[in-house]
Amino acid sequence: MKRSLGGLALLLVFLAGALPGRAAEPVTSLPRDNGVAILAGIFSSDVFSDIVLSPWDTRTESIYLLSGSYNRRLTTVLNHLDIEVEAGVGRRFGDNNSAEAYAALGLRWREFPWNDYLRTSFAVYPIGPSYVANLSASEVSKDKDGRSSNWLNFFSIELTFAAPSMPQLEAIFRLHHRSGVFGLINGSTNGADFLSVGARYRF
Q1: How many whole angstroms separate alpha carbon 120 and alpha carbon 141?
Q2: How far apart (Å, rounded) are the C-alpha atoms in residues 182 and 145?
Q3: pLDDT tens per residue across span 180-195
Q4: Are 19 and 118 in contact (CB under 8 A)?
Q5: Which residues sit opposite 45 in a β-bridge?
Q6: Which residues, 6+ apart, have CB-to-CB distance to 67 below 8 Å?
Q7: What is the phi/psi pair of residue 95, to 5°?
Q8: Is 86 within 8 Å of 69 (Cβ atoms)?
């Protein structure tokens, strides 16, 4: 089935307009080093690139993921690019009951011209181990290559938004992805994607 994500994006834009005007502290101040987050996601069997290019037309299945994570900033380079690590655990339910866990290295850019009004960051987690105890049928579908593995690579892209008056509390929009990295792991070009939303508290 297809579910529109456009309405969610419009709601975000509307809420952003209602946020307090400017930050009480300079937006260039360093972020808090630690963060804990909770996310809820829905599974998509679409190709990762198709989800990124046309998220409003994404097909979803009745597999859901509830996860929690811990995030730590290691250092900042070029004044605005954070290097960080994250680890998370989760539970799939619906048509696939399974435990899931991951760890990843991340890069986060946090300098945007509208940060006085809506603090924004964009993160990419390009590499790290991802483990799922019980694979879903979609992950080993013969429509793809019929191969997968409990251990794959974790990859994710993420957008966060926060009110300038409460920079420690972020809304998260994440594309949670695991794959065989074009066949490098177990010869698998299969993967799993969850379109996730959640919140992170930084301290």
Answers
A1: 37
A2: 11
A3: 777 677 766 667 899 9
A4: yes
A5: none
A6: 38, 39, 41, 88, 89, 90, 91, 100, 176, 196
A7: -80, 0
A8: yes
Q: What stretches in the chain show pLDDT beneath 50?
A: 1-28, 30, 142
> Which pLDDT tens digit goes with each residue over 23-33?
444 444 545 89
**Nearest-angstrom CA–CA distance, 162 and 23:** 10
Cα angle, residue 159 at apex, residues 56 and 59 outer, rounded to 5°: 25
- Tokens of residue 72, six digits: 């730590």
Instruction: Check: CB of residue 134 under 8 Å from CB of residue 155.
Output: no
Scan for tokens 């049928």, then name that residue: 137
**pTM, entire model:** 0.79
Joined together, the tokens standing for residue 36 give 């804990």
Q: Which tokens go with 52?
A: 């990124």
